[in-house]
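Our preliminary data section would be incomplete without showing what the modeling component actually yields. Below, a chain of 412 amino acids is followed by its predicted structure, encoded as tokens that our downstream tools consume directly.
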Amino acid sequence: MTKKSTHNTVDHLFRHEYGKLISFLTAKFGSTHIDVIEDAVQDSLYKAMQLWSYKDTPKEPGKWLYRTAYNSIIDILRRNSKSVEFNPDILPLEITSVIEEHTLPSNIEDEQLKMIFACCHPSMKEIEQIMLSLKLLCGFSNKEISRALFKEPETVKKAITRAKQKFKTEIGELALPTNKEITNRLDSVLKIVYLLFNNGYTAYDGDSVLKKDVCEEALRLIGILYENELTNTPKTKAVFALMCFNFSRFNARVDSNGNLLTLENQNRNLWDNELIQLGLLFLNQSAVGDELSNYHLEAGIAREYVISKDFASINWNGILYLYDMLLHNTNSSSVALNRLVVLEKTRGPKVALKELKKLDESDYLKNHLYYAIKGDFEMKNKLSIYKSTLEKAISLTKNQKEKEFLALKMDD
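Predicted structure:
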């Protein structure tokens, strides 16, 4: 196996298995050892990268990673002998039997979701809950969390450190919350799954703009929430609808070389109609009660894109109306920027650029999307400064495909 293929295999496993490994091992060893568990999981992936570059990949690489991480934790705990709960004589002969033995009985039939609910403990602030979950269960780097939440990397680092300490002292034995606690924590859990999907739909760094398996993992988790009567709320259905609408366009978002395509240039024959129909079903089911959440509005926006027969027939005025409602509900900088893109479609680049200049640029100094949109508006207004603006956007993004996309726009 080549180094590149080995890296791709381990990268896939990292995104697919990381949260499961952390969740299972925390259930086994307890929250007080979360640092040891995290180090062991990362070490198992590093060992896989080294070994599989010159040896064949195991038939069941996931089990190999489980066993390696598990035994690494045991070795560490044997050496420091600090845990009164740990019994060093218990060693797994087969990892599958260990998994079955330590599956926690609950209504939420997934270890990773149980862990997310545990991370959303009320002793932590909501932002700490989200950061900790993205770090431990979704494998986000501090930079990815920083970009996803529009926070400074140092702020993220300190918040995660605080959250980990609370997790160690407050969680104790990993156990599923009560039904009432599940209901109270659902909003935070939905936000985490939503951010996980977004990370796959627009990758924050690396050589690929999309991470399909990350999106699929988010869809799997939201599906579990949808199937459970405690968590099958209108808001859950709206998130599910939003993901289905967006994921239906996944295969059309890049060309054969992996280059990003705008909505206008996407081949609609590649859109997944079954997912679109599922999204319409879930969005219809979500229209119950009086609540109109931001997820409902975002799903409504995504719906307008997928039901139009072509780019020219998109209902931009309807989308702008939904964005106005969304912006009224939230002070999100990303919502403000995306609204301006739609505003340009309805009222032209001159008005859109004027509105963009009203935004406080200090809030967007490290946001490549701000400069990408600003440069696009400047280009359409025939302002020569657009190139330097796009260069700023290129310098800020860590994703290679986004850099190439912006460079092509600048050349044009």
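The beta strands are 205-206, 398-399. The first helix runs from residue 3 to 29. Preliminary results of this kind motivate Aim 1 of the renewal.
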